[in-house]
Amino acid sequence: MNQDYIIPNEWSIIEEGFEKDRVKSSESLFSIGNGAMGQRANFEEFYSGDTFQGSYIAGVYYPDKTKVGWWKNGYPEYFAKVLNAPVWIGIDIEINGEKLDLNTCEVNNFRRELNMKEGILDRSFHAILPSGLEIEVFVRRFLSADLDELGVIKYDIKPINADAKIVYKSYVDAAVKNEDANWEEIFWEPVNTEINNQQGFVQARTFKTHFEVVTFMENKILVNGSYQQITPTNAVKTESKVEFTYEVEVKANDTATIQKFGGYVVSTNHAKDELINAAKNVLLQSNEQGYEQLLINQKLAWAKTWEMSDITIDGDVEAQQGIRFNIFQLNQTYSGKDARLNIGPKGFTGEKYGGSTYWDTEAYCLPFYMATKNQEVARNLLMYRYNQLDKAIENGEKLGFKNGAALYPMVTMNGEECHNEWEITFEEIHRNAAIAFAIFNYTRFTGDQSYIPEAGLEVLLGIARFWQQRVNWSADKQQFVMLGVTGPNEYENNVNNNFHTSYCAQWCINYTLDQIENIKTNYPQDYERIVAKTSINAEELVAMKNVADNMYLPFSEEHDVYLQQDGFLDKDLTPVSELSKEDRPINQKWSWDRILRSAYIKQADVLQSFYYFEEDFSKEQLEKHFDFYEPLTVHESSLSPCVHSIQAATLGRMEQAYTFYLRTSRLDLDDYNKEVHEGLHITSMAGTWMSIVEGFGGMRVKNDVLYFEPRLPEQWKGFSFKINFRHQILKVIVNKGETTFELEGTEPLEVYVFGEKSVVQPSI
């Protein structure tokens, strides 16, 4: 744990006291979003201290050119950067001629609260300006869940010990910089600025990709809660900025307020020449509803979201806060409304990793959206990959693969590979398997048999073809081997025969062959269409089966475990527990060379296979492999603790499961990896949900039926969650010695608890 300033609360993230050295961390933790855009918790007013300015628009990115030598033929042409969007929140403030700047004021009673129940961010403080003037400030901000192009700000200032002339300078500005820009690059080109009465518009386009965005605003002034007929004393527009100045004179203990409606409209949703009109329409709708109604609608929208996705924990406030924070951020990041979008590792909270699509979506996020949204939302996540299959085949062709072999990108915005590390881009190929597993997982959970004949089989076939061509025949071993790969454990690069990669390849080929037979028998018209499109033939299928049947999997007879890769036992197997505190985290303390030569594991690798394909292994095998690999795992990936929590719970090791759960649920709140200032770990948050539902709840789907093995940590009195299972809502309530169910639906639902059958009747 690196920080502990967040106050435990079941429904809110609360910070009290102003500390300059934690501003950037709090900007991440108090981020808000609505699926279409997001905003770090930057101050509206000017702040001269250290800050990470960040506002982001879903699907808007910049292709940063990659330069490499000839020896890396096939290397990605660019690295996709998620872009800091033009500023919409800006409100500079002067009081009696002094600029309000928390870096230069005396700040007292500072409090920030992210109300997760209602999707609202509040900030309040008492400040003494250098002149001695005392003020009280209250700021409320939210991104509308209904009008997802709109953000709302209410900024109150009350002078305490003197009358005051308050000047609000509200602006929108496209002259922004990215935190991860090289050489102070600028990514936005101004196109047009416009003022229409008290509405301001800045139109800008991204270089290269030519996304066009209009950032807009409209302001209203209130005194003591009453609207004032105050017009700007100054309205300025430059090539990239529009700014309105409002002057308000108030007595001591009176409150001046500015209400600001702002946000973005984007060329992905509107014609470029209609963007300003589209922005005017958003403002029209906003004004028709007004601030108070928008606030009511925000609360109602979030109440509806929580009705389905909430998890309750009785008796452990920190655990409750952790899971709700995770669920809240997931719902802020991806709503499922737009099939073109996906889930980036940082969501709308930072720029690291390019903010793009990773295998995290399929491996970790899909179960959450499958179970807490409707089936179509999860299907959209799968269709995202189907729609990019041609690009995945092109990606394979760049490396010399043929015949429709598909290598899905490690990182993408539009289907093209845009990662810039060779070891990850072309060696961490297990991401292909995550996509195949997601198809299997989706079908297993939803019972939707139509996806595979309509789209999924083509994806599976492309991936299976890749695996068939990627292996080498070893004359020495008389088996197929998988050379030069990187498994989920990125602290091992360019290894031979990584178990997880090879096992996934074997499974994927067998699953594809099974589905081909299924479609051939049950969906003959789809089969004929797919054969005509992909040229599947019997000879190719035999060759695939030969690879699957003869795949080499490294195994140690001495330890009776599958080995992470060839040569793993050549390493020093000193457990993590014997490392000194000064050595942790090793990714910040050790050289990369030292890490690669160590046995320390970044995240679940062999155990990732045991998570995916649980039914392929006995509980005894799981226990043996868990005991061998977990002591060597440093969990320096956000994706690691959740898998280990689930498996520890499966093994009945509840204290260990609980420890891992706390780590995954409070990874950012407590900043375990000392990097929260860069943004939140959004995709791993879905793993937190899994650790409760699949870990403590023991939920599995077998043969179209729900199975549960609920286990209660001793720290909890009980917990509950809901899942949308095949168009019926099942609530699972776990208390000491008792598990009960409530069903919202029309048909009785058969479930098994520790192998005993039970029939749940719909609630009347």
Given the structure, what is the number of helices? Answer: 19
Q: Structural class per helix/strand content?
A: alpha+beta
Task: Specify the CATH homologous superfamily of the domain at 38-309.
Answer: Glycoside hydrolase, family 65, N-terminal domain
The tally of beta strands, per DSSP, is: 32
Biggest β-sheet: count, sense, barrel? 10 strands, antiparallel
> Whole-number radius of gyration?
27 Å
Beta-strand content: 15-25%
Mean model confidence by pLDDT: 94
> Might you state the CATH topology name of the domain at 38-309?
Beta-galactosidase, Chain A, domain 5
Shape: globular
Uncertain runs: none
**How does CATH name the architecture of the domain at 38-309?**
Distorted Sandwich
Portion of residues within helices:
25-40%
CATH class group of the domain at 38-309: Mainly Beta
Q: CA-to-CA gap between the ends? A: 47 Å
Entry summary:
The chain has 764 residues and is of the alpha+beta class.
Defining key terms:
Beta-galactosidase, Chain A, domain 5, 5-stranded antiparallel β-sheet, 764 residues
Structure description:
This protein is α+β, with helices and mostly antiparallel strands and 764 residues long. The chain has a domain at 38-309: Beta-galactosidase, Chain A, domain 5 (Distorted Sandwich), CATH 2.70.98. The protein is built from 19 helices and 32 strands. Strands 1, 9, 10, 11, 12, 14, 15, 16, 17 and 20 form a ten-stranded antiparallel sheet that branches. Helix 5 crosses helix 9. The relative contact order is 0.09. The model has no long low-confidence stretch (mean pLDDT 94).
